[in-house]
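Hello again, I could really use a second opinion on something today. For a while now I've been wondering how a particular protein folds. Please have a think about how the structure follows from the sequence. Here's the protein in full, and shout if anything looks odd to you:

***
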Amino acid sequence: MSILTKKFTQEEYQAVYLVDEVYDGMRLDQFIQEYLPAYSRQEIKKKIAKKEIIIHDRPGKNKPSSKLHFGEKVTVVIPKTTHEDEWWNGQKVALQTIPEIIFQDQKIVVISKPAYMATHPTGKHLFNCATVYFQDKENKTVHSIHRIDRETSGVLLLGTDPKEASKLTPQFERGEVKKCYFFISVIQRGQDKEEHYHDKVEFKEEARLDSPKDGLDRVWIRHHPKDSKHGKRAETDFKILHTEISHKNKREYALGLAFPKTGRQHQIRVHALANGLPLLGDKIYLGSFPMFQRFKEETATEEDHQLLELPRQALHATALKIKYQDKLTTFKSKIPGDLKEWMSSHLSIEISKVEEQIEATLKCWSDD
């Protein structure tokens, strides 16, 4: 699959694709779906009719059934519309689209990524992306050094110099980067449940992780015992800062920190679930895969909203320690406003006390 050029702005995505020999004779709509699998055939047909998909130097009207020839070029334009909007209880979520800059020099930029901002363009999420924002702002290519989930907020490193990005990314791949995440969980109790909270303040989880299905179902990750032959090795340390039964709804919650030692998909969320601590707002692991689908299709029920309480998973990348310019450096991000607002309305603990606990825990990073 050959992409000749790609151009992102915060208002439009444009790409030029080369028809490789293997695609000679393929229909235009089928060819585009190879590159844009998140779009349905009907959506692609509409884009062709609107001339947002065109075959270069092809006289006449392009049709979904138009046959492509080896060596031809096809341009795809995707303007920013409403497809990245987020909804909660019938109301559009007010998205933060300008990230807070924690640190910036000529080689990297470190941000506190807002919830719902993707690390880089993927699927239908092409505009509210960290790399796109800074490419537009700096007028040069910006590289994703690592990534965090779209709904997860917090510390994210981006490279504005390709050589520096190539030096830093292997540190994540080798597990050399220390990471700390703050989370809010709903406590599941009951010894009859396989996934129940055991009241430990500090514990390690080593459940192996895998995805049992293909396609859309691959977003659901299973956990297996650490001595299982299924899945891949994963390790997360947890520290519970506070537990409380809410005066507002009598539900029991935990505030905690997670320190992932490996970087598997959904690792913290699944390891928390395995210990009876599914994350507040988590559509998959506090909810279910069908619930996740209902939110995608904007058909979520009142009961779905009541169970989740928050429009996104309550997970925030609080701190990250990495070797940069031959020096170990820690970058930190404070608890974001939406999580603070929920804590203030549901729990009696002062947020400043939670922040002090986090800071005291992170202080040990500077001692090793």
Notes: Residues 175-368 form a domain with the Pseudouridine synthase fold (CATH 3.30.2350). The CA atoms of residues 281 and 313 lie 4 Å apart.
